[in-house]
Amino acid sequence: MAEPGRPKRRILVTGGSGLVGKAIEKLVTEGGAGQRDEEWIFLSSKDGDLTDAGQTKALFERLQPTHVIHLAAMVGGLFRNIKYNLDFWRNNVHINDNVLHTAYESGVQKVVSCLSTCIFPDKTTYPIDEAMIHNGPPHDSNFGYSYAKRMIDVQNRAYFAQHGCRFTAVIPTNVFGPHDNFNIDDGHVLPGLIHKAYLAKKNGTPLTVWGTGKPRRQFIYSLDLARLFLWVLREYDEVEPIILSVGEEDEVSIREAAECIVGAMNFKGELHFDATKSDGQFKKTASNAKLKKYLPDFQFTPFHQAVKETCDWFCANYDTARK
Description:
Layout: E1 9-14, H1 19-29, E2 38-42, H2 53-63, E3 67-70, H3 78-83, H4 85-105, E4 110-114, H5 143-163, E5 166-172, E6 174-176, H6 189-203, E7 207-210, E8 216-217, E9 219-221, H7 222-234, E10 242-244, E11 252-253, H8 254-264, E12 271-274, H9 289-294, H10 303-316
Parallel strand pairs: 1-2, 1-3, 3-4, 4-5, 5-10, 6-9, 7-12
Antiparallel strand pairs: 8-11
């Protein structure tokens, strides 16, 4: 029950069945992070097509949210992005415009959208920070997705300038965890490697990693990101985006990540790197200085522990996991 005199928050999570949505749901339903004046609604693509303005408006009219966490997007790994840049651009622009404009028309008090570090310029200095989003074109491999995500920041500023809306965005680094997409062709690097390691162990074959293993990434566990999303929703009051990431010192190479997975899966076979495959961006090191200024004592789950928990979840849920 809501406290007397305090309005109840109806928080709509788009993309609620995905990696981050499931992590938020776990926190507020099982982890004790929900608050008494909050009602949470988790949407999946089965509930409506957010590329369609009419369906988006109908959802908002039916559910009447006061707050929105906007996670829904067309997403994919490196090779799918390279092949379908136009589709990533068009579908994500439609989704984002429909959600943000319907939120404005519906009087939603706050929207927190999810961006990605791939939106940053390809040619840049490191570490990258929130002020550098629009300083140059993104990497060619996923320019469609990247520009569509950048436009959320443009829209947030415009809705604030013209209508005073409190729409903001977070920029997480490489997210992984339970309920990820473990598809080897279309998934991101870590879940794809976990699936490959599972199959290699099962079939007694070598584990082959695409690329040289040299690129470096900052990985964030989905449950840590979910904790930070709750803080942004409840406490963070800027329209300007904020990077949600582990520190620069916690960046790991793809080789190190693969070796961590090998240990977590207890894989005893050979580990190979196929240098004929594209590495993608070598690094995109992000500064979490702004986050640390707000939350200096936030504790991230150690990478090896998070990888082990993710591998254990995947093995236990292999039949039903997205793959």
